[in-house]
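From the shared-data thread, chain only:
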Amino acid sequence: MSRPGSIGTQPGPERELLTTDLPGAPQQALAELMAGNRRFVTDTLRHPNQNAGRRAAVAAEQHPFAVIVGCSDSRLAAEIIFDRGLGDLFVVRTAGHTIGPEVLGSVEYAVSVLRTPLVVVLGHDSCGAVQAARAALATGTSPGGHLRAVVDAVVPSLRRAQAAGVDELDQIVDIHIAQTVTAMLDSSTTLAAEVAAGRCAVVGMSYRLAAGEVRAVAAEPADLAAIAAPAA
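Structure, as tokens:
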């Protein structure tokens, strides 16, 4: 069971909310995510905050401790791989974790209104969106329909990888995750201000589909990456 007062406990009148108002909240939120992922990897799941009492407790309001901007891949369900429950995570998903005004607006809502102290960009190995963008660059063609918007959003990361001499798919995925972190901070003055004030952090993570574990590939501030290092 989670220790009294931790964010893993069932909610009660004395439950401490992990928000931007709490010193060290970004670090604590990231540590909580990593602990949940270790439980998932080792098959020691707790399934916190997934009962009727929790459902009733969060019906009137929510205080998620992390925003997950993740790929839409069906194997990347954030609440499962981080072993969390109702009201814990504010999840925004698009193919290839591409970002646009609606995604950025959702993140800003979580950070500024819900006072969520951590934003995670969650990608994964063998990403289909990255593969599609690489194929488009190689052939000089783009897919039709709205799928083209996804490919076009990933192409800058491919060009960055090419400039760095990187050709291995999963290394390109890491570059794309890091590029998404940078793009979010460059595009959202609200998010950048919260990070600069120390009230929020942004971490880019890559998920291994077979192993089930996440690892940090980018972080702002940079020292948070150590918290998201794989367990020895």
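DSSP finds eight helices and five strands in the chain.
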